[in-house]
Amino acid sequence: MAVIKIRNYSGYPSKSAQLPYDVNNVLSPRIVGGEDAPERYAKHMVALVLIGYVKMLSCGGSIIGKRHVLTAAHCIDPYVIWGELSPQLKGVVGSNYWNSTNYIEFTDYIIHPEYGWTSFTNDIGLLITADKIVYSKFVGPIALNYDFIDGAVRSFVTGWGRLEANGEVPHRLQLLYLNTMSHIQCVWAFISVGFPSTVDPELEICTLHSKGHGMCFGDSGSALVDAASRKLIGIVSWGYPCAVGFPDVFVRISAFEKFLRDALGKYVEH
Q: What domains can be seen in the chain, in order of their start residue?
């Protein structure tokens, strides 16, 4: 069991508490209840795959520059060995099918310096490609929205995560529309049923569709997109899997503007 500090929001008392499940199973990287995404609906999407004896889906990511793929830090960290990124981690672009062979390779990475691997705080990072990504009618970047996002914002997520907790990984990209929650709604959704809430409203965004609709294993790192502006506002980070009626929690892009601008500046596009 992992002990996670419950943060003090809106007068709620801070205390330490044990989560009711093993942290590796509960606060998991993790679309349930979605639909097949139309072709070219999410040209920014990257399937992060591990190429070994077998090919495995690891996470999702988003193209935000010619050499930059944005994802969750916990999607990068396991593949860093003695400071070097494993060459077995590759990206698939330009296809709604994660088992396609349209690979891009990565040569470097940037993880937020204050990333907390046990609590998923500051769960943001970038993968740097070996070569410039070639944009086409199937491949392209997504713009970042640095505005603070409150509740009731219509948005969508695309990903290749499992269709249920112990279910299959879909071959085709899935799409789910949902609304963001206010931080009060999110905190109460956890606390009202006796679960600790570690959500930080300054750093994270919550969404909730309904029971049977939400994120699952493999969706981590995928983008939460504002449906109106089609800009990226969040990154799938953690939640109580899978789609059991609790909020899904995303990294809040607006909280990391300086980190992102600094990181992007280290690999200037020509």
A: 45-141+257-265 (2.40.10.10), 154-255 (2.40.10.10)
Global confidence as pTM:
0.87
Nearest to 102 by CA among 52, 43, 154: 43
Helix (H) or strand (E) holding 175: strand 174-181
Residue 166 token pair: 């112990």
| Distance separating alpha carbons of residues 143 and 231, to the nearest angstrom | 5
Closest CA to 145 of 223, 61, 55, 56: 223
Q: What would the pLDDT profile of 23-58 be if each residue is shown by its tens digit?
A: 333 333 347 888 899 999 999 999 999 998 889 999
- 187 sits in which H/E element: helix 183-191
H or E stretch covering 47: strand 45-51
Q: Give the catalytic positions in this structure.
A: 74, 123, 220
Give the Cα separation of 230 and 240 in Å (integer): 27
CB 249 within 8 A of CB 239: yes
Helices marked H in 15-140: 23-26
Q: Which helix (H) or strand (E) holds 262?
A: helix 257-265
130: phi then psi, degrees, rounded to nearest 5? -70, -40
